Every structure is written in C-alpha cells, then in structure tokens.
Amino acid sequence: MYTLSRDQWTTRTMVKVSIMAVIAFILMFFEFPLLWIAPPFIKIDISDLPALLGAFAMGPMVGVIIQLLKNVLNVVLEGSTTGGVGEFANFVVGSAFAYTAGAIYFRKKTFGRAVAGLLIGTVVMTVVITIANYYFIFPFYAKLFGMPIQSLVDMGAGISDKITDLWSLMLYSIVPFNLLKGVLLSAITILLYKKVSPILHR
Prior knowledge:
Strand content: under 5%
Number of strands: 2
Helix content: over 70%
Order of helices and strands: HEEHHHHHH
Oligomer: single chain
CATH architecture: Orthogonal Bundle
CATH topology: Arp2/3 complex 21 kDa subunit ARPC3
C-alpha cells in the first residue's frame, strides 16, 4: 500500500492537494445527464480528474485525499440531500478509481502503465459502484424519498426494454454509464497529464 511519508507531506504538497481538491469541487457543478444510457437522476461530471492527475504525479494516496476533501467541501458548502450517503459513495468510488490507476502507474511511470492503470481503474470503479448501487445506494434513495425501488427501475425502462428490475438496471444502464465515464476521464487524463505534470512536480 502506498502512503505519503512525513517528509513527502510538505507544505507545498498540501497546497497542491488543496488547490486540486477545490478544482474537483468546482467541477462537480458541471454535470449533465446521458439520457440515452442512464435515468435523468444519474449525471456525469469530470470531478475525478484532479484526483487522477494528483495520483499520477504524487502517488495514489494523494488521489484518495483529493477525493475526500472534494466531498467534504461539497457537504460543508453545499449541504447534502442524502445525509452524506451520496458524498460517501462518491468518495469510495472515486478513490477506488484514482488509487488503482495511480498505484499501477506510480510503480513504473510509462505510457503503457498509465493506460493500463486507467483502464483497470475504470473496471474497478464500475464494479464498486454497481455493487454499492445495487445493495445500498438505490435502496437507500428509494427509502429516503418514500418510493418503491420499481419507480427507479421504471425511470430506466425507457432506455432499454431489457431493464425490468434493479439488477437489469445495473447491468444495462449503470455498468455502461460508468464504463463510459471511466473511458472519458481516462482520455482526458492522458491528454492533460504531461502538460500539467511539470506544475505538479515543481
């Protein structure tokens, strides 16, 4: 497991991490639905991007810390309509993505390992969020808003006639949505990392 030593956790590192967490928090506001693949209450954003860049530049644990700070900022400044559950899920899923990608790349910094880390991170993220949604998040939301699970399923039924229950919603909507999100974030990370790397390593 990768950790930051006391020597590595300098004031300069803390400033970089804080700035990237703020950028991640701001990026959370730029979200939009993909109605052809997911119900309207599921939206995509690129707020995981700073965590991925931080994990590549400074180690996988930095990515986790950026995800934590991003979600703490969101709860403190914006509040939470889910009692913090949505933010906790965002933290766990985003951390799984950033840590996995960063750990694979940080061991040997090559382009091939960067691509491999991002692709494996995408798969890990998709598996984690699918399990979390099926067993915890969707049932919690249904209970919180006083609606049957089938109401959430029906929102996704228009996407595919194969969506008839919660598991098929996961399989035909949540899985492809997160795979697409992961590929999009991976592509942006690859395009940006070399450009911002000198700044992050300065």
